[in-house]
Every structure is written in structure tokens, then in C-alpha cells.
Write a structure and sequence with these properties.
By secondary structure, this protein is of the alpha/beta class. The chain is built from 12 helices and 12 strands. Strands 5-6-7-8-9-10-11-12 form an 8-stranded parallel β-sheet, with helices on one face. It has a 4-stranded antiparallel β-sheet with strand order 1-2-3-4, with no helix packed on it. Bound molecules: nicotinamide-adenine-dinucleotide.
Length: 382
């Protein structure tokens, strides 16, 4: 069993506003040390995907999963991925392995989730068993707030890539546009929101331009095939575009029917930046932490239930389809094998325009994930 302090700490990764948390700190969380370079991966079996139809100019549907073509590299990012936040370490390898068997090819991780090594183990096992090749897998992971300084970012990206053990990262994101005091990898990894004294220590001396420049270096060195941003809104996005050598290819943001973010979606589409929507089920992920602000479950909402009944699908499938049909990628997470498989089966039906509108009408600009709940100066959405 994992100590509860660990669970609590990890869950602040993608915080929720209310109430402000004072979480216990785990003093030592040492990432496994990789002593040898990752060994070459077997490339024995190839399962080619066939892409058959399109529902937007950049999104193509496969027999099993849609893909989104990224602008700079032309890389085909699976539009249905598996989110790994709160997948317990002891289950992560098996969960990822079984998700691959269920058809998932994209895994969304982060330093902050503390399970990158175990997720990588599951992927490498699937490769060794000939279920997929490395090239068919897409690993997304994220740089934490305390590594925004150039030298820290370059160091932690290398460390994270070695945890995955897959030679390179397909998509590397900057997790949040806010900066925290650096905690060395050897002292505590992942570091979380709070310093060694249990307090949150934002710093204000690292411009995003420096961080983005380091991300671009990782493209040039080959560690990251694609780079992107997360939790970035319009004004910062426009600023990044003013100095970027490589434009961000993906912006990963919270989007669900209570927070539809149409303006941001339009802005990103205008610039050719793909969007990955996280927390597609709105409060569900936060309810299990008792951090959902007691907003009504989307699974129980009459509008979602009606649409689900009309199309003969589950409420979860309707919520994922609603995002996909807007050209967004989704990364639902489930530790339940049946739900995990169902969540992947969302590319073979369509919602009508009226159904799409009825779901979007639930918008109330309700954000679950706002770092300002941790510290007033982290008001990235203020
Ligand atoms: P989610 O919207 O995927 O919801 C997960 C919750 O829904 C869990 O409680 C799960 O038990 C439940 N669930 C899953 N499938 C279900 C089904 N078919 N029926 C009923 N209940 C179901 O929320 P999430 O995990 O917070 O977000 C998805 C992923 O997005 C994360 O795992 C992570 O990879 C990523 N993420 C990124 C950020 C960021 O800041 N970039 C923040 C949060 C999450």
C-alpha cells in the first residue's frame, strides 16, 4: 500500500480551487535510478493503422482511433489517449499494458504523477510481447513548475525520458505557466507544489521565454519529437508566439461541458495548435478527492443522460465524443478495465448538431483546476 501522504501529495498535481490545501509532504520520494542507458527495443511486430475518414481538416479517423496531425512535424497524435494521473504506482504497468491491448496508443503522463517509470514498464512489456512497436506508441509527458529554468529543464527532461525508458518523448509539455522554487531531483522527485518546509514557494525570476527556449533545445537534441504547452490562455499564448522558434504544437487544457472554452479553442485553431482536453468528465476526477465543489455530476446530468439514451451510449462516451467532434484530443483515465475499454470506443458514432449544442449549453465557466487555490500568486487564470 502506498502511504496516504503520498497519495495526497500527488493529487494536488492538478489542483482544485476550493478549499486551499495544506498537504502533508513526503520527505523522500526517490525516483528509481537508471544506471544503464535504455536498451534497444524490439521492433518485431507492426500493427499498421489505417486512416479512413476525416471530420476536420487536421483530424483523421482510424478503424480504432482518430489521430490529429500536428502542424510543425506532421506527426499523427492519437486523439484518444489514456490519462495516467492517479493511476497507483503498483497498478500502473499492468493498467498501461492492458490499455494497449484495449487499443490505446497514447499515454498522458507527467513528472508530477510520480508513475512515469511504471507506465514506461507497461509500454516496454507490450513492445517486448510484440503487441506494438515503439513507433506506434505516443508518450506525452510534462515538465513540472520547479524546473522552468533552462538548466533544470534540460536536466529533468533527460531524467524523465530515462524513467520512461523509450529513447525519446513524443510530446513534451510545460505543465503550468507558473514557477516554483527549484528542488533538486535527488532531494525529492517529483517535488509537488510545496517546498521542503511544507509551504508553497512561487518564484518570479524565470520568464516563460527562457523555459520555451529550453524546450526548443530538446527538439534540436532529439529528446522531444514535439513540444507544447498546458494550461495556457490567450494572452500568454500570443506572447509565446512572438518569440517561438518552434510554435507550441499542442495546448493541453481543461475542457468539459461546464468549461467549454470556445474562445481558446478558436484561438488555437487559428494558430494551428492542437488542443488536448483534460478532465472530460468534469467533476468526476475531483469528486474522488472530495474536491469537486459539489457541482452536479455530468454523468447524472439530465441533458447528458438524454443524449446518451438517444445515441445508445454511456454518458462517459457522450462526453468524450462531444470533445472529439470539436476536433479536440481526449485523455480519459480509468482504473476500471471495462470503463477503460468503453472510453476508447468513441469514434464509431456521431452526435447531431442539436445534441452538440445542448451539451455545450451546460457551460458555466466552472474550472476545477486552478493553481491559485494553492497560492494567490499562482493565478494563471485570473
Ligand atoms: P477524467 O475526466 O478522465 O475523469 C476520471 C474520473 O472519471 C475517475 O474518477 C474515473 O473513475 C471516472 N471514470 C472514468 N471513466 C468512466 C466511465 N466510463 N464511467 C464512469 N466514470 C468514469 O479526469 P482526469 O484523470 O483528471 O483527467 C484525465 C487526464 O488528463 C489525467 O489522467 C491526466 O493525464 C490529464 N490531466 C492533465 C492536467 C494538466 O494540468 N495538464 C490536469 C488534470 C488531468
Amino acid at each position: 500500500m502506498r502511504p496516504s501522504a503520498t497519495i495526497a501529495r500527488r493529487h494536488v498535481c492538478s489542483i482544485l480551487p476550493r478549499p486551499v490545501l495544506h498537504l502533508p509532504i513526503r520527505t523522500l520520494f526517490s525516483a528509481p535510478t537508471i544506471k544503464t542507458p535504455p536498451r534497444p527495443l524490439p521492433r518485431s511486430v507492426s500493427l499498421p493503422l489505417s486512416f479512413t475518414s476525416t471530420y476536420s481538416t487536421t483530424t483523421t479517423t482510424t478503424m480504432s482511433s482518430p489521430v490529429i496531425t500536428l502542424k510543425r512535424t506532421g506527426a499523427k497524435m492519437p486523439a484518444i489517449g489514456f490519462g495516467t494521473w492517479k493511476v497507483p504506482n503498483e497498478q500502473a504497468a499492468d493498467t498501461v499494458y492492458n490499455a494497449i491491448k484495449a487499443g490505446y496508443r497514447l499515454f498522458d503522463g507527467a513528472a508530477d504523477y510520480g508513475n512515469e517509470k511504471e507506465c514506461g514498464d507497461g509500454i516496454r512489456r507490450a513492445i517486448q510481447d510484440g503487441i506494438v512497436t515503439r513507433e506506434e506508441i505516443w508518450v506525452t509527458t510534462k515538465i513540472w513548475n520547479s524546473f522552468h529554468k533552462r538548466e533544470h529543464l534540460l536536466e529533468v527532461a533527460k531524467h524523465q525520458s530515462s524513467l520512461w525508458g523509450l529513447d525519446y518523448i513524443d510530446l513534451l509539455l510545460v505543465h503550468f505557466p507558473c514557477t516554483l522554487e527549484h528542488i533538486p531531483i535527488a532531494t525529492r522527485f517529483p517535488p509537488g507544489w510545496h517546498g521542503l518546509d511544507g509551504q508553497c514557494h512561487p518564484v518570479r525570476n524565470i520568464p516563460y521565454q527562457e523555459t520555451w527556449g529550453a524546450m526548443e533545445e530538446l527538439v534540436d537534441s532529439g529528446l522531444a519529437k514535439n513540444i507544447g504547452i498546458s494550461n495556457v490562455s490567450g494572452s500568454l499564448l500570443n506572447d509565446i508566439l512572438s518569440y517561438a522558434k518552434y510554435d507550441p504544437q499542442v495546448n493541453q487544457v481543461e475542457i468539459h461541458p461546464y468549461l467549454t472554452q470556445e474562445g481558446l479553442i478558436e484561438l488555437c485553431k487559428y494558430h494551428g495548435i492542437a488542443i488536448t482536453a483534460y478532465c472530460s468528465f468534469g467533476p468526476a476526477s475531483w469528486a474522488e478527492l472530495n474536491m469537486h465543489g459539489h457541482v452536479e455530476s455530468l454523468f447524472e446530468h439530465q441533458s447528458i443522460k438524454s443524449v446518451a439514451q438517444e445515441v445508445g451510449k454511456t454518458e462517459a462516451q457522450v462526453l468524450l465524443r462531444w470533445a472529439l467532434q470539436q476536433g479536440l484530443a481526449v485523455i480519459p483515465k480509468s482504473n476500471n478495465p471495462i470503463r477503460l475499454a468503453q472510453n476508447f470506443q468513441v469514434s464509431q458514432f456521431e452526435l447531431t448538431e442539436a445534441q452538440m449544442k445542448a451539451i455545450s449549453a451546460l457551460n458555466r465557466n466552472y474550472r476545477m483546476n486552478d493553481p491559485q487555490s494553492i497560492h494567490i500568486s499562482l493565478g494563471i487564470f485570473s
